[in-house]
Amino acid sequence: AAKAKGRNQHLVFTPALRTTLQDRWQITSRLRDAAALDQLVVHWQPVVHLATGDVRGCEALLRWQHPQRGLVGPEDFIPIAEEDGLIVPVTRWLLETTLTQAVTWAEAGLDLVVAVNVSAVHLSTGTLVDDVLGAVARTGVPPRRLVLELTETALARDSDRAAEQFAALRSQGVRLAIDDFGSGYSSLSSVASLPADVLKVDRTLVAGPLPARSATPDAVLAAVTALGRALDMRVLAEGIETPEQLARVRAVGCEYGQGHHLAPPLPADRFAALLAEGRRQTGHQRLP
Ligand code: C2E
Ligand code: MG
Ligand code: MG
Ligand code: MG
């Protein structure tokens, strides 16, 4: 409401806002306990190589199993964890959890690359490189098996610093992905200057043509895909929800895909069961 009244207006401390802030404060203090109380859980979404249908990897997506509210999605608590710095220990826990899970899956014969989302706040603390390499060393997972995802918005905040840390991680073999590309204010030159391995095309570009430009429905999707390929990146389409969207992303040359039409994020046991069923049916590491 304050924003709607104009930029120069003071923030009006309405009862609704007060409630929101109190609510958020409670979420934060309870989130502190959550990490200790094992209320954080990870769901895993398959990453599919579109030409073969093979599952090549998965993305770790954080959820909070809240005693009263049920399963809370990351969009409802990550911004708060970022504000008070809790995102750093949470991400350390997540890296350890993800890499430990990767070891378990490797022992079960699954060949997977695991992706973890990293916050811009973590980049600015300066501990990211040590946190990542520490977890890699402790778990013994080959660094090539780990992809760190950062949104283009996070990268744009301090791109020199990001590039520095990326270079340090990459020299150790860790791979990097630019997440949600095409959803924010993309700077083509900063994308070109970042040593990233994967370009994740935002689901808004996958979702469909803008009505006003129906003569060239896939122009932007095709251009972004071509950009990624020209920069020698693997291009991954996010949020594939329908067979039509799958056909579109294939047609423009996206190499990898993720989305509910392929498979939703799943708890670890269901993820493994799905791949076991896929292997039983196809003889390959595929979805059933
Ligand atoms: P993201 O990294 O772009 O993750 C993809 C999001 O799209 C996930 O939402 C996933 O559940 C959702 N998704 C997957 N397939 C589909 C689909 O077909 N259609 C639609 N509409 N959505 C789909 P989720 O799990 O709610 O996560 C939202 C965002 O929260 C993530 O976006 C990521 O930026 C952030 N996030 C999640 N886990 C973490 C984490 O551990 N650390 C940090 N810093 N951020 C995280
Ligand atoms: Mg991501
Ligand atoms: Mg994304
Ligand atoms: Mg996102």
Automatic annotation (TrEMBL):
Chain segments annotated as transmembrane: none
Organism: Modestobacter italicus (strain DSM 44449 / CECT 9708 / BC 501)
Signal sequence interval, chain numbering: none
Domain EAL: 24-279
This protein's name: Diguanylate cyclase/phosphodiesterase with PAS/PAC sensor(S)
